[in-house]
Amino acid sequence: MSHAKIRAPELKPVDYSTKFGEFIGIGPNGNLFVDGCDVQDLAERFGTPLYIISENQLRQNYRAFRDAFQKYHPDTEILFANKSNNGLAIRHIMNQEGAGGDCFGAQEMYMALLAGTNPKSLVLNGSNKQDEELEMAIANGLCINIDAMDELDRIAAIAERLNCDVDIGIRLKLDLEPLRNRMGVSMHGPGTLKQQSDSTKWGMTREQTVEIVKRAQAMGRINLKETHFHLSRMSNDPADFAVMAREMITWSGYIRDNTGWTPPCIDIGGGWTFGKWYGTGPNSQLDDDKAPTPDDYARLCVGAIKEEAERLGLPLPKLRLEPGRALSGPAGVAVGRVGAIKTGSTKKWVNLDLSTNHLSWASILDWYYHAVPVKNAGAAPTETVDLVGPLCNSDEIGPHRKLPELSRGDYVAFLDAGGYTESSAARYNAQLLPATVLVSGSTAEIITEREQLKDVAGRFRVPPRLLAASFAP
Ligand SMILES: *Cc1c(COP(=O)(O)O)cnc(C)c1O
User: Fold this and answer.
1) Nearest CA to 227 among 214, 241, 243, 213?
2) What does pTM read for this prediction?
């Protein structure tokens, strides 16, 4: 077997009786399986709350986007949005697949570099980049997507001091006129997709973009590489993304007409969804089986890009996209253990040791995670319960779920929890953050250690004057 093959192994989807993904489903004994591992065994062995990531599912999700876009536009590069799952092992897997990365902030950039990611396949995004961050990006050769008027001068000064060249992009504030009447998803605030996009802090106007390009053209050491946009809006309509992709090219035409520079690469960001037959996503069950596939996105976006490029007489640019949750989300599950079960006059509550601090989107964004019992995962539901966690707020991690009867000690798994869970977990109530286990075939290995009390308590300090006041005689 060649080295390249080992780095990016052939994937053979598992033949489950019920499929939640290519590598997640109901196994031969009726339990939930992640690849070749029984989740019941994993929970007993590693404890709960527990995140589990399927390595092969992650690779599969990446390849689905890569293959779909490269089918319509071979010169496409997939940059994994690192923030959706910052694990070092995750980054190693992405590197082996040949994925680039979107870094937000010095720490994400540091970890991507620590994992050996090719810096030329990394971009640095951010609306308020610090000097330290710019310096790390410039010294290591990342492309910096400019998002403030004074950023170019700061970059130029650091590049001069470090005596090196730097690649830059510009984050755009697209007009998105055709989305004026398209209602946005409420998780992004009130209004239409256009209003939601207009109201965010991101991106430079046409005039600002032209000014940045002109100033960059007059500078040594600055290489203009790309324009960037991140729609982020969750919508079940891939045509919304095609509107955005088309307008990236419209702006390329405008930039060319005003500066002579045609962006050789457009980076169309993240926000790509995934669909599941059981529903998932914001405000429950938006991302169901009607959600666009990678092929839908690719066909419509690349189609729009080609049409607009032809209309304006522009060469086809290199295409970059930055999917996060579409790659990491369906690659993971989060598992909790059933404790107290309580019946009230109108409700039944099933307490878990997993909560909204571990699946933070469940509370912040009203995100729906499909929950299944780990043992006998396909059993018919017999009752409706609220799945709640151990926090001091009413942490409904799964309200109104139809499930078979659960008992103390059973495990419950929340599907599609591989993205924005560990990376946005909080230790409210001094909770210890969970471990993460990476599964490949029948192998399961810890990739994030479970937090210990010393990790939480050890950060606290008591000023000596308070010690004196408490303890001095
Ligand atoms: C968050 C983010 C992404 C990833 O978004 P997903 O919804 O996870 O695909 C990509 N690019 C940028 C600039 C982002 O901020």
Assistant:
1) 213
2) 0.96
pLDDT for 349-398, tens place per residue? 999 999 999 998 888 888 999 999 999 999 999 999 999 999 998 899 99
Q: Which residues contact 106 (CB under 8 A, 6 or more apart)?
A: 130, 132, 133, 136
Which one-letter DSSP state was computed for residue 204?
B
**Which token pair is 412?**
């419950």
CA–centroid distance, 396 to ligand 1, in Å, is: 26
- For residues 99-108, give the mean pLDDT: 97
Q: Which atom of ligand 1 is nearest to the CA of 104?
A: 15
* Size of the chain in residues: 473
State the amino acid at position 297 in one-letter form: Y
| Residues 407-420 pLDDT 10s | 999 999 999 999 99
Clarify whether residues 178 and 246 are in a common domain: yes
For residue 400, is it within any domain?
yes
The tens digit of pLDDT for each residue in 219-234 reads 999 999 999 999 987 7
With 60 as the cut, is the pLDDT of residue 285 above it?
Answer: no
Do 322 and 334 reside in the same domain of the chain? no
Query: Does the beta carbon of 323 sit less than 6 angstroms from any atom of ligand 1?
Result: yes
* Chain segment 171-220, per-residue pLDDT in tens: 999 999 999 988 877 767 778 888 888 889 999 999 999 999 999 999 99
Please state, rounded to an integer, the average pLDDT across all residues of the chain: 95
| Span from the CA of 376 to the centroid of ligand 1 (angstroms) | 36
Per-residue pLDDT averaged across 156-171, rounded?
Answer: 98
**Is there a single domain that holds both residue 318 and residue 354?**
no
Judge contact between 193 and 179, C-beta under 8 A: yes
Domains held by the chain: number: 2
User: What CATH number is associated with residue 33?
Assistant: 2.40.37.10
Question: How confident is the model at residue 2, as a pLDDT?
Answer: 45
81 lines ligand 1 (CB under 6 A): yes
Going by C-beta distance under 8 Å and a sequence separation of 6 or more, which residues neighbour residue 26? 16, 17, 18, 32, 33, 377, 378
CB neighbour list of residue 421: distance below 8 Å, 6 or more residues apart: 51, 332, 334, 358, 359, 360, 361
Relative to the CA of 125, which ligand 1 atom is closest? 13
User: How far apart, in Å, do the first and last CA atoms of the chain sit?
Assistant: 73
320 forms bridges with which residues in the sheet? Answer: 77, 267
> Does 203 sit in the ligand 1 pocket, CB within 6 Å?
no
Atom of ligand 1 nearest to the CA of 171: 13
